[in-house]
Amino acid sequence: MDAAERRIVKFTAGSHGLVHTYELSIPILLTVWVGEFSTTAAALGVVVTLGYGLFGVGALPGGILVDRFGSKPLIFACLAGMGGSFLLVSLAPTLPVLAAAIAIWGLTASVYHPAGLSLLSKSVDQRGTALGYHGIGGNLGIALGPLATALLLLAFDWRLVTAVLALPAVVVAAYGVTVDVDEAGPDEAGTSDDGGPSGGTKGEVSLSSIAADTRLLIAGGFLIVFAFVTFSGLYYRTFLTFLPDLLGDVLGGLVDVQLVDPSSPYADQFDVGRYLYVAVLTVGVFGQYLGGRIADRVPPERGLIAVMGVLSALALLFIPATGAVATFVAVSLALGVALFTVQPLSQATVAAYSPSEARGLSFGYTYVGIFGIGALGSTLAGTVLTRAGPRELFVVLAVIAALGALSATAVARFATRRD
Q: By the 8 A CB rule, do 28 and 146 touch?
C-alpha cells in the first residue's frame, strides 16, 4: 500500500474499533444504571434494544446515503454522533434522556459499516489485506473496549468514565481530517463530472434510484450473497451471545480461580470464563489478518466454503473438548480464529459481487442481514439452551455453518462477479 492507502486503513480501522468499543461498553454499564436510575433490568433492556435495533436497521439507509454523499462525510458524522451520544450519556439526569442518548448512538453508529467498507473496497488496491486490518481494529474494540470500561469503573464514577469514552472519537476524527480520500478506486468503472459515482448523481436520494440500484444488485445474484451473510451473522450472534457464561460454566468445573474480590460490584465481569472470552475475541485478530491475506490470493467466496466447513467441524468438537482444560481452550481459541477469518472474506465477496455505484447499498443490505436478521441468533441460542442444552446448541451451530458453506458454493457457481 502507498502512504495514502495506509492512512485510509488506519482511519477506518480506528473508527471500526470505536464502533464496537461503544457497542460492548453498554452492557458493562447496565450494572451501574439499574441503581443509578432506580429502574429495572427489563426497562433498561428496552433502552438497549432501541439502540441496538437502530444500529442494525440503520445500515440500509446508511448505505444509501454513502452512495450519494460519499464515505468520508458519513464516517465523520458517525464519529461525531457516537462521541456526542456518550457525552450525553455522562450528563443524563433521567432514564428517558439516557434512552435518547443510546438511540443517538445506535442511529449514528449504523452508518459506519457501509461507509467504511465501501471506502476501503473502492480506494485500496490490496482490498483483502485492507479489510483484514480493518477487521483487526474492530476485534481490538470488541475485546479490549468492554475490558477497559470495566477497569475504569473500578476506579472512577460512571459519568466520568462515559465522558472519557467520548474523547477517542475526537482523536480519530482529527486524524481523519488528514486522510485524502479518492473513492474512484481501482475497481471503479467511472465517475460523474462532479466526482460522484457514475450510477447516480451525488447528493440525490430517491425511491427510483434506490430501486434501480437494488435491481442492479439482484440481477447479478446478490440475493445468494445476502443468504450467505445472513447465515454468517446467525452463526456469529448464536455463538457469542451466551459464550461468556458457557466458558465460565465449563472452566468453573475444571479450575478454581478467583481473580477479583467477590464482594466487588463488578466481580462477575472478572471470572476466569470472561478472560477466556476476551482471549477468544483477541485471537480473532489473527483470523482477520488470515482472512484478508486469503482474499488477496484466491476468490474470497471459495475461501468462505473452506472456512465455514472448519467452523462446522469445530462446533461439533466443542462439547467433546470440554473434558480437559487444554483441549477446551484450544478448540475455543480455534473457533475465535475461524469465526473472524470469515469477516474479511465475506466483505471482499460482497465487494466483488456488487457494482461500485451501488457499493454502499450492498453493504447496507449486508449489515441488515448480519446485525438485523443475525440478531435472531440470540433468541435461537437462548431457546436451545433453555429447552435442550449446550450440546444441542453446538449441533445447531454446525448446521448453520454447513448451510453457510452451501450458500458460499452457490455464490461461486451462480452469482456474477462485478469487478
A: yes
Closest CA to 83 of 173, 167, 177: 167
Q: Is 191 in a helix, a strand, or coil?
A: strand
**What's the whole-model pTM score?**
0.80
Residue where the block lists cell 475465535: 336
Q: Biggest alpha carbon distance in the chain? A: 67
Burial 326-336 (b: 16+ CB within 10 A, else e): eebbebbbbbb
CA distance 334 to 331: 5
To 5 degrees, how large is the angle CA 236–CA 238–CA 240? 65
DSSP of 203-263: T---HHHHHHHHHHHHHTTHHHHHHHHHHHHHHHHHHHHTHHHHHHHHHHHH-----S-TT
Collect all residues with Cβ–Cβ distance below 8 Å to 7 and sequence separation of at least 6. Answer: 178, 179, 180
Who's near 379: CB < 8 A, 6+ residues apart?
A: none
Single-letter code of the amino acid located at 380: L
Terminal-residue alpha carbon distance, the chain:
20
Distance, in Å, from the CA atom of 352 to the CA atom of 417, rounded to the nearest integer, reads 6
Give the C-alpha separation, 209 to 211, whole Å. Answer: 5
Whether the Cβ atoms of residue 9 and residue 120 lie closer than 8 Å to each other? yes
Per-residue pLDDT of the chain (419 residues; tens, 9 = 90+): 788 899 999 999 999 999 999 988 888 888 788 888 888 877 887 888 788 888 888 888 888 888 888 899 999 999 999 999 999 999 999 999 999 999 999 999 999 999 999 999 888 888 888 999 999 999 899 888 888 888 888 889 999 999 999 999 999 999 999 988 765 444 444 443 333 443 334 556 667 778 888 888 888 888 999 999 999 999 988 888 778 778 878 877 666 555 555 555 555 555 667 778 888 888 988 999 999 999 989 999 999 999 999 999 999 999 999 888 899 999 999 999 999 999 999 989 998 998 888 888 888 899 888 887 887 887 888 888 889 989 999 999 999 999 999 999 999 999 888 76
Residue 255 neighbours by CB distance under 10 Å: 9
